[in-house]
Amino acid sequence: MSNGSKHEVDTKRANKVEREARKAEKKAAKQAKKLEAKANRLRARAAAGETVYEVDCPEGARPIKRWTRGVPVEDAALRQLANVARLPFIHGWVAAMPDVHWGMGATVGSVIPTAGAIVPAAVGVDIGCGMMAVQTSLSADDLPESLGHVRAAIERAVPHGRTSGGRRGDRGSWGEVPTKVGDTWVSNGLKDRFEKICDKHPKIAKSNHVNHLGTLGTGNHFIEVCLDEAERVWVMLHSGSRGVGNRIGSHFIALAKEDMRRWFINLPDDNLAYFPEGTEHFDDYVEAVSWAQDFARQNRELMMDATLKALAQCRGIRPFETGLQAVNCHHNYVVRERHYGEDVFVTRKGAVRAGLGEYGIIPGSMGARSYIVRGKGNPESFCSCSHGAGRAMSRSEAKRRFTVEDHKKATEGIECRKDEGVIDETPAAYKPIDAVMAAQADLVEVVHTLRQVICIKG
User: Fewest CB within 10 angstroms: 15, 153, 240, 416, which?
Assistant: First the structure.
């Protein structure tokens, strides 16, 4: 091919790409306009006191109230919700948040109130997983033009990822536990309480515990530097109880299944095996899950402290203050609460408590906005809201469907990993956060809108 012919072909290709880009931009703008109009309609209905959720009434089950208008819900998730709603100890109904999707054990994005029993697989193995966000006194102008060295500094400060099968030498664990982490493990009672739990359940002792305290993990766990609507700098992170929480969850899920077999209790899904209140395993589980939730909260606080210190030591960033506004909330946990005149256990599997005036965090994907919200205390949702955008597809489907180039375009302007190892976390693998927020207009109000400029994943 001559140089002239090659130039002509390249020009045609460039023009085609440009046309496709303009077409995609127009389509995205049209979709955004539609979503905003829908959000305004739902907000108006919520303000007028109208019901904005949908109700399913599966045969032989309690009702399911779904805040999913305008958000797709796959059939597998609906079947899973129905199975949960058929449990004999459901208090009132099951609530499904707009980010609802199929999950291991129970549906992610569900709120399960139970009287006299707990389903350990509904809490899952990432016990106490949640979010923390802190506003700083920095503004966008205080950040350096190139953010690569800031990202690198945070990555050095907080162990993340997983290597060596999680064993010795794992980059996501502490090789040598820092003094502050060790002091937290001892002084906050985590060590003594853990040893007490292990006396009764020795299998739990064989886990990564103190060496995972203050570490990030993998998957959808992240640390971000964000800007809000006033261009103020926030630090936000997402993680839970790490290896020890996984060991506790897995151990008690197996015990619950054994109990069901011993008592000849048949369930539509053996992952819904439960502990009745008053039994030995029930009390042991409550003790262990409460410990794991406390571990998770301390884990986030230690990571936040390390991240802020790393940020403060970066060249070009002036001294700053924190604590102007901070939120630390679980979204995978079980807690005793009072609803409709009864004390019940509320399991939030991928859901955040949104009591009246309570603050929460609803993150988008790597390339979408996130929100600091204030709860409206809606009793119909058991004072709950979504915990994020929610996956639109499985991790394997995302890896099959998207390329590294797709991911680079979706995360343009964000300092983050842009390799095939994070394709399953690419923005298009998640539901549109705007639609999710619109569907829960009667559950929360937005206080701050954040967009990330740095995203760190394991």
Answer: 15
